[in-house]
Amino acid sequence: MIDRRSILPRLRAALGRAAALTIIAAGLVGVCGIQAGAAGSQATTGGQREYLIKAAFLYDLIKTTGWPSGPSSHTVQICVVGSDPFGAAWRSIEGKPVGSRKLHIEARDSGQSFSDCNVLFIGDSEQGRVSQIIVGLGRSPILTVSEIAGFAKVGGIIRLMNVDNRLHFKVNLAAAHQAGLVISTEALKLADSVQIEAGSAE
Questions:
Q1: Which of 11, 50, 7, 53 is nearest to 28 (CA)?
Q2: Is 199 helix (H, G, I), strand (E, B) or coil?
Q3: What SS3 state is found at 111?
Q4: 79 phi and psi, to 5 degrees?
Q5: What Cα–Cα distance (Å) separates residue 36 from each residue in 41, 46, 50, 54, 179?
Q6: CB contact at 8 A, 20 and 164
Q7: Which of 87, 88, 151, 167 sits CB 3.0–4.6 Å from 159 for a disulfide?
C-alpha cells in the first residue's frame, strides 16, 4: 500500500519549485547583451523546466489518487490527446513506479478509444471538442487533466494553471467522484480551489 503521507511533501515541493520559474525567466531575459538567437534558446529551456515540474507534480498527484479497482494491467497509462506541451518532459516520469505498477505515457489520436487509459491529458488544440471528449468518457475511472480554460465547466477533473509563472491547480471534486476516483484529502488542501459541483469552475 502506498503511504500517501510520504508523497505530500513532494507535491508541496513541486509547487514550491514552480515559484522559482519567475526568477529564472526574469534572469534569462534581463541579462545584458543577449542576442535574439540565444534568448530564444533560453526561453525554450525555461519552457522545458516548466513542464518537467508539471510532470513531477502529476506523477506525485497520480500516486495519491485511488482508482475504484486499481488499473487492470501492469502499467498506469497516461494517454495524451491533442497538442502535447510536455514533449520530452514525459521521459522524466516514464517507467516510474506507482505502487506495484509502472507509469507509461503514449499519444492517442482523437478518434481512438481511451478505455484503457487511467489518466487522460487533453491538449489545448482540443479546446473546441473537449466537452465531447469528456462526455464520451462517461463515468469511466479516468483522471482527466488539462490546461484548457473552463475545463471544470465541462466535467474535467484537474486543471493545471500558471499564475504569475507559478504552478497552480484546480480540482473538480464532483467530476472525480462521478468517475469513481478518490483524491487524497491532503492533496486537495494544496489545490488553488476545489470545486464541489461540476460545471461551477473554470
A1: 50
A2: coil
A3: coil
A4: -105, 140
A5: 9, 15, 21, 27, 47
A6: no
A7: 151
Task: Provide the Cα torsion 123, 104, 170, 3; round to 10°.
Answer: 180
Return all residues near 125 (Cβ < 8 A) that are at least 6 apart.
82, 83
C-alpha angle with apex 21: 91 to 126, nearest 5 degrees? 55
The conformation of residue 1, written as its DSSP 8-state character, comes to -
Q: Tell me the C-alpha distance between 130 and 124, whole Å.
A: 9
Q: Model-level pTM?
A: 0.76
What letter represents residue 144's amino acid?
T
How far apart are the C-alpha atoms of 82 and 190, rounded to whole Å? 28
- Phi/psi region, residue 55 (left: phi>0; alpha: psi -120 to 50; beta: rest), is alpha
Angle CA(4)–CA(6)–CA(8) in degrees, nearest 5? 75
Q: Are 192 and 66 in contact (CB under 8 A)?
A: no
CA dihedral for 36, 39, 45, 51, sign (positive or negative): negative
Per-residue pLDDT of the chain (202 residues; tens, 9 = 90+): 445 555 555 555 555 544 443 323 322 232 323 333 333 434 445 568 899 999 998 998 999 899 987 555 789 999 999 999 999 999 999 999 998 899 999 999 988 999 999 999 999 999 999 999 999 999 999 999 999 999 988 899 999 988 877 888 888 989 999 999 998 877 777 766 565 544 444 5
